[in-house]
Amino acid sequence: MEKYTIGSIFEAVEAGNKHSVAHLITQGEIEILNTRDKVLGHTPFIAAARNGDVDIMSVMYDRYGPPILEQTGLLGSTSFIDAAYKGDVAAMKAMFAKRKDLLTQKDNHGNTALHQAALWDRTEAVSQLCDWCAPLDVKNNNGQTPWDIGAQKPSIRKVMEKYKQQGGLHVNKLSFSKTREKSPLVVLAGGDKYEGEWVGGVFDGYGVLERPDGQKYEGQVKDNQYNGTGKLTDRSGFVYEGDFKDGRYHGKGKYTYANGSSYEDDWTENMYGGYGVESLADGSIYKGCFKGGKRNGEGVITWPDGGCYKGHFHEGKKHGWGKFSWPGGNSYEGEWKDGERHGKGTYTHANGSRYEGDWVEDKQEGYGIEKYSSGQTFKGYYKGNKKNGKGMCTWPDGKTYEGQFINDDIHGEGTYKWADGRLYKGQWAQNHMHGSGTYRWPDGRCHEGQYNEDKKHGWGKFSWPGCNSYEDGKQHGKGKYTDKEGVTREGIWECGQFKEWLTEKEPQEGHGSRPASPQPPNIKFTNIFEAVKAGDAQSVVRLLIEDMGILEKRNEFGYSPFLVAAEKGQVAVMEAMYEKQQSILQQSDKIGITAMDLAAINSQVAAIEFLLRCGGSELLDARSRLGMTSLMRAARYGHVDVLKVMFDTKGRDILVHQDNTGETALHEAAKRGHESAVRFLLEVGDASLLEIKDNLGETPWDEAKAKPEIRTLMQTYRTSAQGNIHGLESRESPQASLASIGLAQKVLDGFETILKIDSGESRARLAELVVDALKNVQDYLANLDEKKTKAAAKELFRKAMRPARDCILNLDPEFVVKKFLSIIDRANTRLQQLAATIDSKDLGHLNQMPVQLTLKARGKIEEAWQTSGEETLHHSLESLICLGIELARELLRAFDSEQRMCDRDEIKPVCGALVAKGLEVVREVAKQMNVPQEDLTEIVEYASTMPDMVAAWLPDVELWDADEADTKLKDVTEGM
């Protein structure tokens, strides 16, 4: 069942859906009735009262009880006061029927329900409150009484005058004295009936009060309130019998609900607290401490079926240390949180099995030890009540397994030992030997190779005691047999049985062996693998001329000559092989390791660049049987130079690839402590990489828990991603500087709605960061050679545009249009300032990026057009120009106020360029969207007023020459 949300209860109340409300209360228990909306701080009951929905109010009251009438909103207004403010008499009656002391409730301003009804001209509500004897002379914080307020409103004054003339009580010709008198039955205003003792015109002594709604009180009264010992009942079936004070349950008492549930013991102002006994309709009984009407502290619950919980409670839920016993004999003893097993605890089954360890949200999760009644024991990690991660299992017959588990299955790398001495070490899949592994027998036999569901399958090497061995295949088909004397023969086997020899024994040296064959000239090596390792490309070519088939040979590790060349970085040899057979790029070993993988493992950058030149970029996406990419392998060994080459080729998408266990390149670098690799991955990616979870739920942050230096580095990026402006400083590298700019922009955008920081102060801080960052960038680029400068500029621009992509993916259409176009202008401003240090001809393709990104946003802009109409689109396109100029204006002011080193003359061309670029984007979007010509004309006319608008904004600052601005606008608008 889906867990409730705070929003869902308020949606159900607003829709008037009583059944949904009842379902949500059952699902979320009583805590959901204590939630509040985000605007006015109303609880669900107050929201229902404001809507006048008596049925929903009744559902909530039956579940929560009388204390729900004490709930208040942000201004201290109760549901009864809010109902009076709304003039909803039906809701008022429903609540007054439950509690008679609601007439004296006050909000934070000292207003009662009668104050609010009079203030808002709720005549019917005022009349009803007067019938209930609401006091006219209670003053609010401003010293006003309801009578003072009503005196200014004719209709309200008329009702109050009638009430006041009758002495404020509407009693039929009843005279009062200051001595205690006992009167016969008296009918009061509103139909109330009182029989009992009076003093000075108010109830005092013992009396019986009956309401028209069926509520009846018998007991002691004083000052018109229930005071002393008494009994209160109503038609719904609830009964309270005990002590009262000022109309509220206070002291010792017993409250019995209509469904039979009850609470008996201490009460404080309608809330039960202290020690008490609560009996529920389902037969369960709670004995223990209460606070604020909820179970808090030590207590014991027992159920009719024999179940029992003894321990701590908080806010009505099991919380802290406690023990739960089920009727069948199972039990849990340990830590609880919000009603769920959470922390350290022990679960014992009736059959004797036992789990002791970590719990998270009612599930076995973390490290634990489980002992079964059969004698089997497991020590290791759990997730979701199942073995997941590293662990060790021991059986009573002596068998053991130590390694990886997934969802209770032996899965991954591990070692299994039998009691008779047999051992298998290798890969597993769903409790079967599957993949590469080594199987050893006690007598010395050994098989090393591939397995499929517990059976030898594929390549393998079998050795016997005395050094006899068999390899190049399982014992089915052609293979080689080497005896203990080192003599090798080829033969054929079928289903493990020898059939025939294909060669005679080769004589050993010194026993009549034939002389070696003469070799062709200019060949140093006759073995292809030796030639590859030596980097002898000439010998490799000669050998290929004789036999192209040697490209498919494999060495003892299952590597082909091309794979060995990539491993050793022998680029000349790789080129020679590639010229002969281009498909060689796709070669891999038995478990899917490619040439790119081997080059990455051994940091052979030249070999990687060769593979990429030959069109091998798809090898960066290739995966081994374990799901690993070459980038992950480079990260595993901390080869930053390799990571850079691969990232420049494939971009950010390659960073989020996950292997079969769910791990990314950052997981690999983090858990092995490669600080430089972690730093690079976070710089070219972002802090979201830290939150990617593997199959066991562990993030790179989790993997680095034993490496404080990696944690410190990660915390730097994690803090930045959280948008804390006080932690921002200019960085030493241009990449970090641009990251600061983007981050500062995000912080600025969220200030007014989240951080509540003054916008002017925020913009000044943003200006400081922009200036410092750009100065850093320019200083950095000045010290680089031309090639590095171009590369740096590309990287900086890519980072500057990333916030635009985020807006496209995550924000609503109308906001995307405004913010996206504004970000484009800001990025272009940065690019233009960088252009001062870079040859402009090299930036031509970069200047097209804003248009490309604009086209990507086309879908969102079209959505805004379709859902919001022409006015929204016009406003959005106009915002492109307005926001760009506004940015320049705010930066200029911030520069001046902080006395930054930035001349106004530097801003003038920027503003002019913003207008021109803005109109270019408007034209491009309009063309793609087929905007009607008349609409486009209107936009262009609006844009042409930009210089006048700027002059109105900044009368004391001339941002650009008028003639220059007119020329720029004319050049652009003529094309539209």
From TrEMBL:
The keyword Protease does not apply. Gene3D superfamilies: Ankyrin repeat-containing domain, Histone H3 K4-specific methyltransferase SET7/9 N-terminal domain. ANK repeats lie at residues 661-685. Keywords: ANK repeat, Repeat. It holds the Pfam family MORN. The keyword Repeat applies. GO terms for cellular component: cytosol. This is Uncharacterized protein. It comes from Vitrella brassicaformis (strain CCMP3155).
